[in-house]
User: Fold these one by one.
Assistant:
Number 1:
Amino acid sequence: MKFDQLDERMRRLEIYHSQQVLPQAWPILRVDGRNFSKLTEKRFEKPFDPVFHQAMVQAAGRLLEEMHALYVYTESDEISILLDRNTRLFDREQEKLVSISAATASAVLSLAFQQEVHCDSRLCVAANEEVVVDYFQWRQADATRCCLNGWCYWKLRQEGMSVRAATRQLHGRNFAFKNELLFQRGVNFNDLPGWQKRGSGLYWQEYEKLGRNPLTGAESRATRRRVFCDEQLPLGPAYTEFLRKFMNGR
Ligand SMILES: Nc1nc2c(ncn2[C@@H]2O[C@H](COP(=O)(O)OP(=O)(O)O)[C@@H](O)[C@H]2O)c(=O)[nH]1
Ligand SMILES: [Mg+2]
């Protein structure tokens, strides 16, 4: 009896445990690498490193699987995860969704980098499809902005400019200025890889698997699904159309 009372009293202190994502709202989680500026400075090519990116894609794929997500998007050191508006995952408990997503990404990235790394996670609750579209358009715009800025910054640094001088030269400059700065240094922004300019999207792809019935020898077809990583994401209104497909009928 005594234990039961203590148990009940202690559990009542877990005041955030009962917090759930509102019914019918779309949960979006965003995982971000902790102190990855420091990690990438030491070990990876600037401004973009395909090995670093591959590890992020791997973590994004595991999150798609583990969280039974509809769509996962990664750029830089962050991963956004769209869940079904009717998901029953972890009973929609916010603490669970946030901690498990951070833990999954931390585990996969630690193994990939062969060193202990940590990620944080936050929850964004989108009331309707429009907000979900705005969210992913926002992260893609961030990817494009960071890509252009990152390329300019590292071009200037490679020419021997200090951190301060390079930062000052780019401060408040518009897209055209930065585009021109790169062009004069032999880089055409349009020709940069899609994953650098727009980020990468991961989603389920259905495919037909041919098999043979071991007893009768008859051919059989089964529909299976696998994780697909899209490194050529569409832009603007086409991206909106693309995103809506993941939410249609849900
Ligand atoms: N060298 C390198 N750095 C990257 C790459 N992708 C992301 N980063 C860095 O990762 C950091 C992510 O930003 P942010 O989360 O704000 O920094 P944090 O707080 O240190 O994790 C930035 O410093 C990026 O330059 C990459 O492919 N190569
Ligand atoms: Mg980070």
Number 2:
Amino acid sequence: MILEVRDLVTAYGLGAVINGISFDVEAGEVVCLLGRNGAGKTTTLRSVMGLTSPRSGRIEFKGEDITGRQPFEAARLGIGYVPDDRRIFPDLTVEENLEIVRRVIRRDGQWTLERVYRLFPVLTDLRANHGSGLSGGEQKMLAIGRALMGNPTLLILDEPSEGLSPLMVKTLIEAIRQIQREGVTLLIADQNVKFARRVASRGYIMEEGNICHSGQLEELWANEQILRRYLAV
Ligand SMILES: Nc1ncnc2c1ncn2[C@@H]1O[C@H](COP(=O)(O)OP(=O)(O)OP(=O)(O)O)[C@@H](O)[C@H]1O
Ligand SMILES: [Mg+2]
């Protein structure tokens, strides 16, 4: 098991937003957290990354207890994180955005500028452009490429398909498959189950800070009631 989350409770202020969820991700898998607006997907991912401290529960990464660790520690251990708002550096060029992560995280591995450019050829022509000049889709590719420069073994993507054109979604799906083939495990939060079933094998459906269903994506997809009740199609 690469990631094991047990009885996770996370709160903002007084009210618990995550009510004691448990889930696993196995090495090599692509797993999706699904659920409507406000279900608790982002908070769950932030808890794993150490951006929001859990109130209780336990998070293990490769058998090591990382509950409550700082985000940079999670990154150094091999967790990459792409937030839903991307957070690329607008005043740095594409290439500088990529380089900076390698320098800060300093994890050796297979991901280099060349590999990232091969994964996202569109970034090659933009390498000298400032982050601020990129389209939303290009920023997303850059944010994923940047996270890969830290050579993560687990890559966390929050709402990767949100706001992308159909063509960009296709590029993204191909890229995620390629990343998985390179041996990276992925945990993805997305509202779009159509997208999720193209990339993930298993899914957990969240509602109001709980996991209400889990299973193979194809099973969830085939269940009309679940689709209608919990998911956006
Ligand atoms: N910084 C915050 N302070 C207080 N409450 C928050 C904060 N961030 C999120 N919440 C609340 O926590 C709950 C879960 O939000 P979260 O962002 O984790 O859901 P989500 O599933 O990622 O939703 P979305 O699909 O909109 O991204 C929501 O009720 C939200 O209003
Ligand atoms: Mg979210």
